[in-house]
Amino acid sequence: MHVIIDYQVGNLKSVQEGFKRAGINTIISNDINVIQQATSLILPGVGAFEASMQALRQSGLIPYIVDHIEKNKYLLGICLGMQLLYEASEEFGYHQGLGILKGVIKKIPDHVTVPHMGWNTLDIINKDPIFKHLKKDRDVYFVHSYYADSKDGLLATTSHGVTIPAIVKKGNVYATQFHPEKSGDVGHQLLLGYGDLI
């Protein structure tokens, strides 16, 4: 059972449709029993880091998400969902994250256009099964103003004023700064690769 975590943040239906196109049936839920039974979890997110962490805390799901990860089950963080996995964020102050990945979320430098919105090319740093279906085209869709200042678990990066971790992996936790569900054929190919793992 593959569960998209519903903590009142993000366009969950869009994420669900992206997974469906890749042949991965998901359910959207905030039910603790469902979360506990999940084979894999998807942690989406849009908006501000602090508000999203607060919503996640209020949902009461954090201990169950951490337990899921500690049991070496799969989890995929998407966009802000990726950023929440890090130790902290400097967005509008300093706020603690989940601490699954080492590093701090920082603002993209002002000498480039912020927010970083549009298509950028992935630079693959390390081989991984998630790239199994990836063809030559490697452009994916980003919408963000903050990035992970971290080299923890790097699989792929992109560049926008700074080197931005685009795909990371730690154990069975994967995360993408971009939106695979909005990234056309490349996003679809990456979700196919993820689907083979879960």
Provide key terms for this protein.
198 residues, alpha/beta, Rossmann fold, eight-stranded mixed sheet, four-stranded mixed sheet, 6 helices, 33% strand
Give me the secondary-structure topology.
Blueprint lengths: L1 E4 L6 H10 L4 E4 L2 H6 L2 E4 L5 H11 L2 H9 L3 E5 L1 H4 L2 E4 L5 E2 L4 E7 L8 E6 L1 E2 L14 E6 L1 E4 L4 E6 L3 E8 L2 E4 L7 H14 L1
Parallel strand pairs: 1-2, 1-3, 3-4, 4-14, 5-7
Antiparallel strand pairs: 5-6, 7-11, 8-10, 9-12, 12-13, 13-14
Brief sketch in words of this structure:
With 198 residues, the protein is of the alpha/beta class.
* Order of the strands making up the biggest sheet: 2-1-3-4-14-13-12-9
Structural class: alpha/beta
* Order of helical and strand elements: EHEHEHHEHEEEEEEEEEEH
* CATH fold annotation: Rossmann fold
Q: List the uncertain runs.
A: none
Total number of distinct structural domains:
1
Average of pLDDT = 96
- The CATH superfamily is identified as Class I glutamine amidotransferase (GATase) domain
Strand percent estimate: 25-35%
Please provide a written account of the structure:
The protein is 27% helix and 33% strand. The protein has a single domain (2-197), classed as 3-Layer(aba) Sandwich (Rossmann fold), CATH 3.40.50.880. With 198 residues, it is α/β, with parallel strands linked by helices. It has helices at 12-21, 32-37, 49-59, 62-70, 80-83, 184-197; strands at 2-5, 26-29, 40-43, 74-78, 86-89, 95-96, 101-107, 116-121, 123-124, 139-144, 146-149, 154-159, 163-170, 173-176. The strands form 3 sheets. An 8-stranded mixed sheet has the order 2-1-3-4-14-13-12-9, with helices on both faces. A 4-stranded mixed sheet has the order 6-5-7-11, covered by helices on one side. It has a two-stranded antiparallel sheet with strand order 8-10.
